[in-house]
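Subject: Protease Do-like

B.,
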Amino acid sequence: MYDDDSLGRDNDAENIGYIIPTPVIKHFITDFERNGHYTGFPALGIEWQKLENPTLRTALGMKAGERGVMIRRVEATAPVSKVMAEGTILASFDGVEISNDGTVPFRHGERIAFTYLISQKYRGEQATLKLIKNGKKTNVKVSLEVTRKLIQVQGQQPRPSYLIVAGLVFTTVSAAYLRSEYGKEYDYDAPVK
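Prediction pasted inline below.
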């Protein structure tokens, strides 16, 4: 006979329900109808920073009344990597102005993170981005894609194979390996090359 603790269950987690928001379900169904399978939510593949500090906005060459968020990092495999770099200001997404705190208008009198606009798109759809770099505004169109990882995340593939030659071990790069070598923040600390 087993008790709950021996099965690894937490006795404090009884009668918990999880709710999936209606927009997520609608996105899944529409995506499945369009492609015959679920392709996922697209992403820009960026990390961004709020620009609420007026001194920072001035240092970045933003004029009075200009708003947006600063791009801190662009993933190498992201579709926007060809048109956007660190230090670029993302001012609008599909014509919707992004405020300095990274929000956009949502419902009457409410605001929501601008990433909500990205989540309303589907893989392969186009988006128009207004960018500011060195005080110059440009509009670019990008095709939105699901983020591709260069390194397999543990659990997606069977254990990586390896080869031992003359005492050297050759293996594929994996998230588990990088985590063991560089710690939890391996995506910041591991060398890019």
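Residues 43 and 146 are 6 Å apart (CA to CA).

T.
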